[in-house]
Amino acid sequence: MDLEITGRTALVLGGGGGLGGAIARELAAEGATVVVAGRSAGPLDTTVAEITAAGGRAHALVWDLGELDVVEARIGWIEETVGGVDILVGNTGGPPPGAVTAADASVWEMQFRSMVLSVITITNRVLPGMRERGWGRVITSTSSGVVAPIPGLGLSNALRSTLLGWSKTPAGEVAADGITANVVVPGRIATDRVAFLGRGQGRARGHDRRGGHRREPRDDPRRPLRRSTRVRPDRHFPRRGARRLHHRVGRPRRRRLRPGDLNYPTLREPR
């Protein structure tokens, strides 16, 4: 597939691994020069090495998205080193799981800065350059929790829904300048975060670390329903007694006709 982005510059937030790393590799394979940004240098260097080994062009940029005062410096470095940002992928890390009613106000503020306000601030910084060039793509990654809230991820459900409402608004404001703004809603993809959340849910449901099962409450709404299997007497049981079993498992058993019934056979006298 040719996305016609050869020579474009892409900034992928959270590009050190998981979904962000996969997006960065695909954009580089399409011919874009990718800048992967993230908090830790190790995962960023790994992604850059994989892109370079495949013949692509990539740069690593250590960036804590919660630090909004460095946005101007980071975007300025990209513009001087690579060029103006043509493609912005807003992929941020997820907040910790837990009961939303137990989250402190400071946690809400910190996660709002790193997950929501960072994406909005960076987008506002790169939009003028996109307008000057008459081309731009703003892609914001959220979660399936914006469609159906996920139990235990109240912070993520609320904050990612904020990004969904925000992205829809500027999409109409910048469309005339050749810029599109879209939201992707990924489901359960095999990433490190999904594996971490799965282990936490497993412990909450009674699974130990070795995969054993300690308890299985019947009234747990998160427990998947098991599809029942229809029993066929001719396959699962011997022929002897199959007729009687078939009446018990399948269709109801017929009652024998008795004298006095409407359809009871009677002898008629010849005319």
Automatic annotation (TrEMBL):
Top-level taxon of origin: Bacteria
The protein's name in its UniProt record: SDR family NAD(P)-dependent oxidoreductase
